[in-house]
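hey all, quick one before standup. I had two proteins in the batch that finished overnight and I want to keep them in one place so we stop losing track of which output belongs to which input. First protein below, input sequence then C-alpha cells straight from the run.
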Amino acid sequence: MMSVKEMNNQEQGSIFEVFWTAFKLGLTSFGGPIAHLGYFREAYVKRLKWLDEKTYVDLVALCQFLPGPASSQVGIGIGLLRAGVLGSIAAWIGFTMPSVIALIVFAYAVGGFDIANQGWLHGLKLVAVAIVAQAVWGMMKAHAPDRTRGTIAIVATIFALLFSYVFTQVMIIILAGIFGWFFLSKSVQTQTTNIKIPIRRFTAVTSLVIFAALLVLLPILTVVYPTFLLSLFDSFYRVGSLVFGGGHVVLPLLESEVVNPGWVTNDQFIAGYGATQAVPGPLFTFSAYLGAVMDTGTHAVIVALVAVIAIFLPSFLLVIGTMPFWNVIRQKKHFQSALMGINAAVVGILLAALYDPVWTSSVNNMYDFVLVIITFSLLMLWKLPPWMVVVVSAIGGSIIGWLI
C-alpha cells in the first residue's frame, strides 16, 4: 500500500495527462459501466499507479451510492484526486468526448431518414431489447438476490407500469430507500478505510448547495422564463440528479422527459439508444444524440452540448460535494441499507422499462422476436461485445425489412 508521502506525490498530476489518459479510455472502453470500472482499474491502479487498490474500491463504493453514471463519476473522482477540480473536468471531457462526437454524427446521419421505415434502424431498436434484458438479469443477481430485495424489485415494476406519471420513478426510489433504511440494515457490513481528499470541506459544501439550488430553482425558472434551452437543461439536469444505478436505468426517466413533450419521437429514442450501445464511453452520452436529433430551430450541436452538460453536471457537484464526507457517511449502516433498497427498486424500474417502451415499441412480429433471441444469446451465451451485437442486429433488421 502507498505511503502518505507517495499518496501526496500522486495527487500532484498534470491536467493534460489526466485528459489524455481518459481520452484513450473513452476511445476503447466498450461494454458498459461494469466493464468501464475494469478498464479504469487496469489503467489507473495497476499500470499508472495513480491510486492504490483500497482507495479505488472506496471510490467505486461512493459512486455507487450516488445518483448518476457510476463509471463516469469514478473517472471524475480519479481526476479530482490526481489534479484537483480541473483534473476532474479534464477526466470527464476526455472520457466522454469520443462517444458524444460519434452520437452527434449519428443524429445528423439519420436526420434525413424516415426513422420508422429504416430496417437497420429497426435493428438498433431490437438490440436495445436484448441489452436492457441483459442489464436486468445482471442487476437482479447483484441487487435483488434474496426474497426481500426481489420483492422490492417486483413491487417497483408493478407500480412503474401501473402508475406511469412523471415522478413515479422518483417516488419508488424514495419509498424503497425508506424501507431499506429500516428493514435491511442487518445485511450491511461497514468499511473502515479512509480516502485522502485534496479539497476543502467548504468547497464540498458549496458544491452541494449549488446542486440542491439548481434542482429546486430550475423548474421555477422554466415557468418564469419559458425558453426551450432552459427547459431542456432543467429536464436533463433533473434526470442526472435522480437516476440511481446509472447506465441503462436512465432510459425510463429520459423517455418521460423527451418523448412525452414531443421533443423526440419514440422511434428516434429507441433507435438512438441502440446506437449508443455501439460506441465506447458512458451510456449517459445518449443525451448528446437526443439533443442533436431534436427539431427545435436551434443548432443541433448546441442543443446536444446543453443536454450533455446538464445531465452530467449533477455528477460533478455530487462527487466534489460528498468525497470529503464519505469517510464518515459510508460507515453508517442505515445509509448503506437505504442504498440496498434503492438498488433493488432500480432493478424493478428497469424491468418495467424493458416492457414499456423498449419491448412494446420494438417487437412487432415473429421475425423481430427471433432477432431479439439471437442478439440476447450472443450477449449472454457467446459473450460478444455489445458493439458487435449492435452491428449484427442492424444487419438483421435490414433483412427483416426486406422480408416483410
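OK second protein, same deal, sequence then C-alpha cells:
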Amino acid sequence: MILVTGGSGFIGSNLHAALAAEGREVIIADWLGQEGQKWRNLYHHPPFMVIAPEDLETWLASSPPLSAIIHLGAISETTARDADLVWRTNVTLSQMLWNWCAKHQVRFIYASSASTYGNGGSGFDDDYALSALLKLQPLNLYGWSKHAFDLWATRQATEHQNAPPNWAGVKFFNVFGPNEYHKGKMISVVKVKHDEVMAGGPARLFKSDQPGLPDGQQKRDFIYIDDVTAALKFLLSARNLAGIFNLGTGTARSYADLARAVCTANGLPERIEFVEMPTALRGQYQSFTQAPMARLRALGFNHDFLTLEEGVTTYIKNHLRQLDPYR
C-alpha cells in the first residue's frame, strides 16, 4: 500500500495511473475540490481510497500498512503570498510525514523544487550537504518553503539520526504533460502556447529582463511527465536511498525552441510574439535552469528522457488534440 499526497494533482495523478496499471494499491490524500475538473484526473483510475489532508494525521495514527509515502501535496504557486499557510502546508505537514516514516520505518519520497536554486548563481548541483544547501537563495516564498524543508530534512538525517530508512527529496524542474489542466496560472507553458496557436494567435513569450539575454532565449530544463513518473517509480525500489536529487532531462532549452515545437506539433507555421514581463515576475523569474543528473544516474537510473520536441509532440497528439485529454 502506497500513500500519495497531492494524488489528484498533476504529477500525483500521473504517478497513480502508472502504479494502478501495475496493480498497486494507492491511497490518495488530497482535496478533489468543488470547482474545476480536478477529479477528472482520477476518472480513468479511481483510487483505493481518498483521504482529506486534514484527516491524514488521524488516519496515520491507526498505523496503516504502508510501504511508502510519496509526498507531492503542496502550495506550488510561485506567486503565493500567505506565508503562514505556505509554511503549514509545505513545511509543517512535511515534517509530520517525515517523522511518521522515521518512526514506522517506511520509505519517504517528497517533492522539493528547482525553484530552491533561485537565479542559479550558486549552480544547480543537487549536493545535499548543509554547506551546499546553505548557499542557495530562492527567489520567492514557494521556493523558500521547499528550501526550508530540505534544510530541516538534511539536519534530521545527518545531525539527529532521525530519518526514514530510505528517503529522497526530488527537485522537479519544468514538468509538462496531461492532467495539468486544473493548475490555472501555474499550468505549463506548453499548454498555454498550444491554446494560443490553436486559437489562431501567435505563441506569446515574455521579453527578457536580463541585460544581454535576447528575447526568447530564457532557458529551462523542460521534462515530460512520463519521464518524471519513471524516475519516481525507480525511487520506490532504489536501495540505500538517502538524499536530494534533481529531476530534469539535463538539457536546458529555450522558450523559443518550445514555441517552435508547439507550432510544429500542431502543423502550423512558426509565429512568435514577445510581450513585456509582468511586474510581479521581474526579479523572481529564473532565466536559466538545467539539472545535473549524475547523482540520480549513479543510483542506477538509466532511463532515456524524451527530447523537448518528442515530449511536446507526444503531449499534443496523444492528449491535447484528443476529445478526452486526460490520462
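Flagging for whoever picks this up: The first helix runs from residue 10 to 21. The radius of gyration is 19 Å.
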